[in-house]
Structure prediction request, 89 residues.
Amino acid sequence: MISDSDLIILVFAFLFGFISERTGPQTYEYKDEFVVIGSGYQCPTYCAIRHNHHVQLNKSGLNLDEKNNKMYVNEYDLGAKIKKNRNKK
Prediction:
């Protein structure tokens, strides 16, 4: 039988996974590549490596990439959100 402590652990595990998926870094389509929004690292504007670039949202509407040489994207330019495939067989 499932004890109360087992049930509490299951609820906390579910909540932790749900919250981390909602608040963690999110991957989106952007032009012809994928970008990761919300991570601590930002790719520089001159990054030429073929990978998912780490960027921040440009909420102010200013041209921030010339000022600090980091990648920014506008929210209205983002494509579909890429969901992680959890069913690995």
Summary: The CA atoms of residues 33 and 52 lie 7 Å apart. The longest strand covers residues 26-30. The helical segments are 4-23, 65-68. The chain has two helices and five strands.
